[in-house]
Model the fold of this input.
Amino acid sequence: MRDTQLSRPGATALVTGASSGIGAATARLLAHEGFRLVVSSRGGRGLDDIAAETGARPFPVDLTRTDAAEELHAQVTTTIGTPDLLVCNAGMGWQGSLQHMPAETVTHLVRLNITATVDLVRVFAGDMAARGSGHLVLVSSIAGNMGVPHEAAYSASKAALQVFGQSMRLELARTGVALTMVQPGVVDTSFFHRRGSPYQRRRPRPIPPQRVARALLDGARRGRPEVFVPAWLRFPARLQGAAPGLVDAVRRRS
Done:
């Protein structure tokens, strides 16, 4: 079912992780489409720049803090009311063998990739349901469907996010609140440098974050429960579920 709220003039949106990559591309697209925006990240020049470029209201916040969701909720609702669109994009990666991953990094990754999103949905979904409209977008990863070696904790966090999204989509049925899960493949952003290792594989080739942003908004407007970017990733993801041994064997050879 098409979400007409997201096509009306002056629709409102909150984008987290907005200072770079997919979040920044999404903020730019939403601003171009006429949305009234609030953008959030830990802060710094990147957030200030995207806010100035898009005319958005910036709110720097560390989403791994226990009270961060409530704080951001209060700031956003005071500024634009309950948003029509909530894009939960903030996240982090880490590459390396799990036994070499510091315990504090595991904790931080889980808090940002899972707990922060759960908390944001917890504080905003109720307002949306009471109003009878709203759209939640959770930015996951193909790694949540097909575990990536040397990214075990990251893959696990994205898999957890997907099951959370499925649960909330059912929980919010008949409330007027929809949920779209966006699952990008390799995206040409600073994500890989921040995780500690650049992307070095020849295939698949990274796609621009603007392509993810366009698919995200189109999927939300069309009311799609799931969006793969690029779309062909849907097929290996489904095959992984149907024949994991076969897919593992193919991936080990590649």
Notes: Residues 246-251 have pLDDT under 50 and may be disordered. The radius of gyration is 17 Å.
